[in-house]
Amino acid sequence: MTHPTRSTPRRCLLLAAGLACAAPLGLAHAQDRWPARPVRVVVAFTAGGTTDILARAVAHKLGEKLGQPFVIDNKPGGGGNIGTAEVVRAAPNGYTLIVNSVGPISINQTLYKNLGYDPLVDLVPIVQIADVPNVLVVHPSVPARTFEEFVAYLKAHPGKLSYGSTGVGTSSHLSSYMLGQRVGAEPLHVPYKGANALNDLLAGRLQFMFATIPSVIQHIKAGKLRALAVSSARPSRSLPGVPAVAEKGFPGFEAGSWFGFFGPKGTPDNVVTTLNRAVNEALPQLQDQLIREGADPAGGTPQQFGAFARKEYEKWKVIVQQSGAVAE
Fold this sequence. Notes:
Strand order of the largest sheet: 2-1-3-10-4-11
Shape: globular
Order of helices and strands: HEHEHEHHEEHEHEHEHEEHEH
Strand content: 15-25%
Number of domains: 2
Distance between the termini: 87 Å
Number of helices: 11
CATH architecture of the largest domain: 3-Layer(aba) Sandwich
CATH topology of the largest domain: D-Maltodextrin-Binding Protein, domain 2
CATH superfamily of the largest domain: Bordetella uptake gene, domain 1
Structural class: alpha/beta
Low-confidence stretches: 1-30
Helix content: 40-55%
CATH class of the largest domain: Alpha Beta
Radius of gyration: 25 Å
């Protein structure tokens, strides 16, 4: 018969202590293994739009790289505020993220009086995906074939030309407002919701608009719209031969869109680091596809993206206030 020795209780205590110490280490290890399950990626706009197109392209590549699906969840409405607010309220565990754009991040807190959150504080910047310039497109019935001819035509017909936008205070609206101010003309603004502005431009009920390149590039190639200039500081690789407004007598004119990943405030550092690295690795592989779609791949660090978003907020705040735009 075996009798327990006096060291048995001590042995048990040591074993129990070892297990207790191992548990937190195991938990920490599990937290480091991100993603361990599918990741929900909110898009605050409708399927088929520019944000959605870019998010799906990058999400597919991330799924391949990180071994878990990145599932797009479209939550449109309120100029992007509905989907953005949902992510602000989400658990900061890395499994609810958002691909967002200039409007909800850097314009809407000036445009909307009671937003209820500050996207520059309540969201964590992770990585910029792409810059997407707006492009000035005209209906073929407009006789101008160059940007210079269009400016002359606009000046010669004050108050006679109508332009559409995807909504009051959007970069589509504010780009045209900025051009009108610089030219000294006041074309008629007709705000729409979503793609309806483009439909009316194609039908000839509008004369021009600034639109994101991905939303109109196929119509440009088909000859249904004429591209005259882009709103970025330099010409876009997606539209070779189309000049920038800034190099055609309007220095400093820059009014494009941009897109990137954000997470809820408190998103773990390892999630931010892993996702940032994965997107930066994926962008060169997606470069040709993104350029065909009308986007210029970006990348960079979370710190660079955060500083850029805040600089954009400061710029657009002044323009929104000058325009008098207020969300309807």
